[in-house]
């Protein structure tokens, strides 16, 4: 770890399980041209986090407003593996207060082990994979740890 990595309180980060964080709120309005929820618009895929260097990353996704959009699917990953962090999921299965971590979101309580830890060296994106997500809100938190000097993960 780089000597100047610290948490928001300035304390050194020494625990790779709960380290640095970046947050991004994604609000969907897929019927709007080029919105990130529009399947065939310029806003899809949407960059959630800009990654510099190589990092260990866990993505926590919590739904704060139920998603809508008939047959819409959603996934989180990178340009080379678009569902590498969260598997392709039917958008209408992601309901308010659920923690989305796999293809079957179903609970507001999850074990911390459900957040897959991945080595990431590219920007983290969200892809609407089949049809518009017309409404809803997901709060994303990237929990990360630097593996190379000057690594970072910041909300896009």
How is the topology of this model organized?
Elements: E1 20-28, E2 46-52, E3 55-68, E4 73-78, E5 81-90, E6 99-100, E7 118-120, E8 124-128, E9 135-146, E10 152-155
Provide a quick synopsis of the model.
Helix content is 0%, strand content 46%. It has 156 residues and is mainly β. The chain has one domain (21-155).
Order of helices and strands: EEEEEEEEEE
Helix and strand content put the structural class at: mainly beta
Largest sheet: 5 strands, antiparallel
The proportion of strand residues reads over 45%
Q: What is the averaged pLDDT score?
A: 90
- Which spans have pLDDT < 50 for at least 5 consecutive residues? none
Percent range of helical residues: under 10%
What's the Cα radius of gyration?
15 Å
Give the total of beta strands.
10
Number of domains: 1
Amino-to-carboxy terminus distance: 23 Å
* Count of helical stretches: 0
Quaternary class = single chain
The shape is globular
């Amino acid at each position: 770890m780089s000597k100047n990595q610290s948490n928001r309180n300035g304390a050194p980060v020494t625990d790779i399980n709960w380290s640095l964080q970046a947050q991004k709120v994604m609000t969907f309005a897929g019927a709007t041209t080029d919105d990130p929820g529009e399947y065939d618009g310029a806003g899809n895929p949407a960059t959630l986090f800009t990654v510099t260097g190589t990092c260990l990353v866990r993505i926590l996704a919590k739904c704060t407003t139920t998603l809508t959009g008939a047959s819409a699917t959603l996934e989180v990953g990178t340009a080379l593996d678009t569902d590498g962090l969260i598997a392709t999921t039917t958008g209408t299965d992601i309901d308010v207060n659920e923690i989305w971590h796999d293809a079957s979101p179903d609970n507001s309580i999850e074990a911390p082990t459900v957040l897959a830890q991945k080595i990431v060296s590219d920007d983290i994106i969200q892809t609407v994979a089949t049809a518009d997500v017309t409404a809803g809100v997901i709060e994303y938190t990237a929990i990360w740890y630097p593996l190379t000097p000057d690594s970072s993960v910041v909300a896009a």
